[in-house]
Write a structure and sequence with these properties.
Elements: H1 4-11, H2 21-30, H3 39-45, H4 48-58, H5 72-79, H6 81-97, H7 107-128, H8 133-142, H9 145-154, H10 156-165, H11 169-180, H12 184-194, H13 199-206, H14 219-236, H15 241-255, H16 259-280, H17 290-308
Helix pairs in contact: 2-3, 2-6, 3-5, 4-6, 5-6, 6-8, 7-8, 7-14, 7-16, 8-13, 8-14, 9-12, 10-11, 12-13, 13-14, 14-15
Length: 315
């Protein structure tokens, strides 16, 4: 049972960022199946700053359009309403946190994990064709918002837990449960519900590190986000062999992805994160070299195999 007192304190925290009105309206329209294709586009066009950001990203190498896109209306036609919604909400979410002094909160680590997971979750959703890639991206981007919310509400008390975890996400969850009786995944999911995000995205946040516990209707999206978490670990761990093995095993079990598919996703995530970070105005630290990481993991695996192989005595 979660700690309702702390949850209420977080949800009522005046220092918690709020979504811009245009983002709230986009989410609201997205939940209505009868909304015309152009409605979200017209809404974005009313916000000149947001429109400029969306068009800059749409025309970047990230999307690889064959001809320039000059209006949001064109973007909706070329990319679809879901994709344009994803881009607009991404800028809104990043903007909502901009201007907050970092203090003891490591924004670089936070955004690196969020962005790597979002791009990877989208890649797996596209390959598996069993979840909406744009929703997988947004769930990955929001997965750790509960950490930021807990820090804003609890201040130094939560900063101590972050320091105690030493950057290990799984350890942090255990510490949160032991000391707060609530975890950031649940906090983030509750905030996403308050913001009226679709249930699939809420589920992706709530079960981002325990996809096997997710409800059946959201299981595949939650698996995509969890795989995205592991992709982040592969691209940031000092010794990635164990994480790559875990990623390969779960990718094969859940979506039939083989070792080559895994390597392709890692390369795609590293390249797209490099493109997206400056476009979104995010600092995510040094860029990962996926090819070198995969080669290093293979080298370590071969070394382990040699060290455990039986030796025959010379005659």
């Amino acid at each position: 049972m979660l700690n309702q007192e702390i949850l209420n304190e977080v949800l009522g925290c005046p220092a918690l960022p709020t979504l811009p009105a245009v983002a709230v309206r986009i989410i609201e329209l997205s939940g209505r199946p009868d909304v015309p294709l152009t409605e979200v586009g017209r809404l974005i066009e009313k916000d000149q700053a947001l429109s400029a950001k969306v068009l800059r990203l749409v025309n970047s190498s990230y999307f690889g359009l064959t001809r320039p896109c000059t209006t949001i209306g064109q973007a909706v036609v070329l990319l679809g309403q879901r994709k344009v919604r994803q881009v607009a909400l991404t800028f809104a979410l990043v903007g909502a946190m901009r201007g907050v002094k970092p203090d003891a909160f490591d924004f670089e680590r936070y955004w690196r994990r969020s962005l790597y997971t979002a791009v990877a979750a989208q890649a797996y959703a596209a390959r598996a064709a069993t979840a909406h890639p744009d929703e997988a991206f947004l769930a990955g981007l929001l997965q750790d918002f509960g950490q930021f919310a807990l820090y804003r509400a609890l201040g130094d008390d939560y900063a101590k837990l972050l320091a105690k975890s030493a950057g290990d996400h799984r350890v942090l969850g255990e510490i949160e449960l032991a000391e707060l009786d609530i975890q950031h995944a649940e906090v983030g999911a509750c905030i996403a519900e308050r913001w009226k995000f679709p249930p699939s995205i809420v589920g992706g946040i709530r079960y981002h590190d325990r996809a096997t516990a997710a409800p059946r209707e959201h299981a595949d999206l939650c698996r995509c986000v969890m795989l995205g978490n592991i992709v982040h670990d592969v691209l940031t761990d000092l010794e990635p062999a164990i994480s790559i093995d875990r990623l390969t095993v779960l990718g094969r079990e859940w979506f039939g992805a083989d070792a080559d598919d895994t390597a392709a996703v890692l390369t795609q995530v590293a390249e797209q994160a490099r493109t997206l970070s400056p476009l979104l105005g995010l600092q995510t630290g040094p860029y990962a070299d996926a090819a070198a990481i995969v080669a290093r993991a293979a080298e370590l695996r071969r070394g382990m195999a040699r060290s455990t192989a039986p030796h025959s005595d010379a005659a």
